[in-house]
Amino acid sequence: MRKTMKEMIYETRSPEETRAFGKKIGAAAKPGDLYTLVGDLGVGKTVFTQGIAEGLGIREPICSPTFTIVQVYEEGRMPFYHFDVYRIGDIEEMDEIGYEDYFYGEGLCMIEWANLIEEILPQERFDVTIEKNLEKGFDYRKIIIKEHGTEK
Ligand code: ADP
Ligand code: MG
Question: Which ligand neighbours the alpha carbon of 64 most closely?
Answer without folding.
Answer: 2
